[in-house]
Known about the structure:
- Keywords: ATP-binding, Nucleotide-binding, Transport.
- Belongs to the ABC transporter superfamily.
- This is ABC transporter ATP-binding protein.
- GO terms for molecular function: ATP binding.
- With about 280 residues, the chain is α/β, with parallel strands linked by helices.
- The protein folds into 2 domains: about 1-90 and about 175-185 and about 195-270, 3-Layer(aba) Sandwich (Rossmann fold), CATH 3.40.50; about 95-170, no CATH class.
- Helix content is about 40%, strand content about 25%.
- It has 8 helices and 10 strands.
- It has helices spanning about 70-80, 110-120, 125-140, 155-165, 185-200, 210-215, 235-245, 245-279, and strands at about 1-15, 35, 40-55, 60-65, 85-90, 95, 170-175, 205, 220-225, 230-235.
- The chain has a 6-stranded mixed sheet with strand order 6-7-8-4-9-10, sandwiched between helices. A 4-stranded antiparallel sheet has the order 2-3-1-5.
- A hairpin with a 5-residue loop joins strand 2 (about 35) and strand 3.
- Helix 2 (about 110-120) crosses helix 4.
- It starts with a strand and ends with a helix.
- It binds adenosine-5'-triphosphate.
- Adenosine-5'-triphosphate (ATP) binds near residues 12, 31, 32 and 44.
Amino acid sequence: MSIETRNACVDFPIFDAKTRSLKKAFLGRAGGAIGRNSSDVVVVEALRDITMSLKEGDRVGLVGHNGAGKSTLLRLLSGIYEPTRGAARVRGRVAPVFDLGVGMDPEISGYENILIRGMFLGMSRKQMLAKVDEIAEFTELGDYLQMPLRTYSTGMRVRVALGVVTSIDPEILLLDEGIGAVDADFMKKARVRLQALVARSGILVFASHSNEFLAQLCDQAMWIDHGRIREEGDIEHVVRAYEGNEAGDHVRKVLEELERERAAQAGSGAAAATGSNGG
Ligand SMILES: Nc1ncnc2c1ncn2[C@@H]1O[C@H](COP(=O)(O)OP(=O)(O)OP(=O)(O)O)[C@@H](O)[C@H]1O
């Protein structure tokens, strides 16, 4: 599996822009540049000359200000958008997780929504039937899963959606944040599942404004600025460039913490193995 883009650009033509008061070319603090294409139609230049090459095992975080182009890049990689110019080629089974609520039907039960949402993300009905009990247990929603989804609170819906998303087996996982609405205890549980999901996905591209979350799931990052790749490299370096030393130090702490957790897990795994041999 792989992702390759070469000088990929995405323009959004805006036919109903108030053109008379528009400056010739506008580059604001937020959002992509506003310009005109060759037919003099106003366009938002959401992505400019994106060249990237990802292979199995790559875990890339996208950082950048509001409107920088992160979501547009994820949509380009998922095939929802074609490049206006340049090329984008993606090989592999893609699971686009942009909006946790997409593909959910308020009129049917939580249980049925689990099946449907899973199929929307590329799983077969049979595969989902095999997973549904485990997902139901993860959500801790009990009998609520028999009730129509419209009777759920926002956080309860997110639990269902997260349960499904973290149960799939994608080759390429494209994740847009928006995972904020669950309570802290549940998030802790979800984090473990998300990390497991990422570990079994071949390629991850994850857009988020949470450096903590990014550091937990990614090792590389790209800073998207006004539709262009401004900086790329390891995640600490990119966050430091984008947000400064304090944020960079925070990322390093999160990475060190993860490293300790992993070492402790490996240690206890080794101890358990030794124990069973001895007994
Ligand atoms: N469907 C659309 N039609 C017109 N312009 C769009 C459309 N989608 C995005 N844009 C523009 O493209 C630019 C990039 O938007 P995008 O959603 O990719 O940014 P983002 O980095 O994900 O931002 P945020 O962090 O705020 O979610 C913005 O200027 C936005 O106004």
